[in-house]
Amino acid sequence: MAPGPLQRSTLVITNVHLANDSGDTASRQIYTLVCTNGEVHSIEAVNGATAHDEPTPRVQIYPDATVLDAGGHGISLPSLCHAHIHLDKCLLLPGRCDTLVKGDFQEALEVTARAKASFLDDPEDLYNRGRQLTVESIKCGVTIMRAHVEVDKTVRMVCLDVGLRLQEELRDACDIQVAVFAQDPLFTSMDSAEPGENYLLLCEAARRTGVSAVGSAPYVEPSITQAKKNIDLILDIAYEKMLHADFHLDYNLDPASEPLVWYLLSQLRGRIREGRWAAASRVCVGHATRLTLFSRDEWDELARIIREEDLPLTLVGLPPSDLYMMGRDTSSPPRGTLDVPRLRREHGLRVGMSVNNVGNAFTPQGPIDPLALCPLGIAIFQAGTEEDAKILLESITVDAKTAIQTLESRSKPFSLRVKVGDRADFVLLDQNDTVYEVALRPSYVRTTIKSGVIVAKRVDSSWVMGELGSQKL
Ligand SMILES: [Zn+2]
Predict the structure, then answer these.
(1) How many whole angstroms from 85 Cα to the centroid of ligand 1?
(2) Could you give the CA distance from residue 300 to residue 430 in angstroms, rounded to a whole number?
(3) 116 CA distance to ligand 1 centroid (A)?
(4) 357 alpha carbon to ligand 1 midpoint, in Å?
(5) What is the pLDDT of residues 415-438, one digit of tens each?
(6) What domains appear along the chain, each with residue ranges and CATH number?
């Protein structure tokens, strides 16, 4: 496509590979991508070149542009997205919470609750941990995240205040969607007919400017009836405040438990029919591990309803937490996390994947990097084909963005293939040439681009005796 008149703020990414829709390993074509005013302005193949020789003509046409020359190596993909990450209770383990003795879910709730009790007195620690999480994420290639911040009697508004502060401070490098989140029950006891103080605080938090979503964990309620009321209350707040809703739902592997996703679906469909749901609002369902016990017919039914009614609802698997926490009581722990490639292949369901927790009692292990979910997914789902790799990568980029509804995700269909007019939010992976390589062995060296501006670089600074002669760092 021939470029039209260019305006200021031009970024030229040249001699770089791009994903295409027809199996990218067959293509070694390299491209020049011109981004202006935050969008992709033009995409041109570099003539017949497979490696970097000379600066391309395209670079010379835009003398005032910032030029990022990949040198014939590396692939530029849509930037990464944390569809679901906890900003306030990250990086607590080890050292900032009690030592784990049992490592089970109840202990995680108790240990984290005790750690939370100090948040009000030490907001700087809260801020520093949240900032570290966000900055490290940006270096990985994340330009947008939904950050859950807890609101309840223990922490009141302190986590929210920190989330909004980071949202403002880092706005040029990362869009932080703040989700006010009730990890604790909204109902104080089994006998409570009405929600208690946690609910009132959540309503207050949802009114704050800068909040995008409201969420809860219905499974913590004293009864199943109250869990359903919890869902109703969150959907009510979302509608009244024009927010997205985000649930931690069906977080178990108990075949005898009622999957509350059906209740949520019926509520959402009813509200849409009755005009009690904002068109721009979406619903995210995190974990949903109970659904891994679904029969083929149940999955068909769920996928059919979502697809045929174009419901604004996305499932988001959270493998680091799901795998750690689910199945602890069984002799052979199951793969209790949503099988993203299979659900896409067999049911046409696009499922997001996200990191959820980093360094706490709910998920002690694992990196901040969303791309690390791809090799993990390949292993746990035995999903090693090129098609699987593409699905997994989409789940942490375009599908994750769809889950939390970003500007670019409103134009369907969406894929890894860059198009003119797309938002210029990319991650450039220097040590990978193809989508397949990215999923198998994600490049450490990366450049993060948001709105056509380079916002982070991560370089490999290392030295091995004998490898680089006498050069030392
Ligand atoms: Zn979560």
Answers:
(1) 6
(2) 40
(3) 15
(4) 7
(5) 899 999 999 999 999 999 999 999
(6) 10-73+416-458 (2.30.40.10), 80-410 (3.20.20.140)
